[in-house]
Amino acid sequence: MPRQLRTGADEKILDAAAALFARHGFEQTSLKALADAVGLSKAGLLHHFPSKEALFEAAWQQSHVLSRQVLELVSPLPAGPARDRRALELLTDVALDRPGLVALLFRSMTAPGEDPQQAQDELLLNEMFVIDPERELPRAIRIVGALTAMAVLTLMANQEGDKTTWRPLILATCYDALGHREA
Fold first, then answer.
1. What is the CA radius of gyration of the chain?
2. Is residue 2 part of a domain?
3. Residues of the chain whose pLDDT is less than 70?
4. Does residue 117 form part of some domain?
5. Number of structural domains, the chain?
6. What DSSP string runs through 109-152?
7. DSSP per position, 17-51
8. CATH code of residue 109
């Protein structure tokens, strides 16, 4: 059972660690690299999380909690452009606030087979966007394209430090990728 986050520091640690795990994978991410990324010693990091495995698990759990929250918010909406738009808005906001966790969640698309819960992640996205990928391959490809664009663009917005300007442009790009046109 995942533990409750103690502080805002835990959230920052999880996001930074998730970004490293997403970029390098679990095996190639050292405890020292994780500690350096958050400005702590290894002992200081282990004070927050007892092991690299515990940190990885906490990061995965948090990314899944965030994605399930988005699904719960869009589930009452009927399938279609309005639901797609709302899902993109919510996912973009999460990605702008927690880029590392989103990168880790999307790693299942970029590094297939590494995440034992990859099938669960795919089902969650299929539910969010109401799609059967076997029957709707063009739409499935558009969704992957939109989410990939979102991941890259939100990372760039965070690097630029200008989330407010980037957000509507990210949403327009992702919405267009799904084949929808602005009204």
1. 17
2. no
3. 1-7, 108-121, 182-183
4. yes
5. 1
6. HHSTTS-TTHHHHHHHHHHHTT--TTT-HHHHHHHHHHHHHHHH
7. HHHHHHHH-STT--HHHHHHHTT--HHHHHHHSSS
8. 1.10.357.10
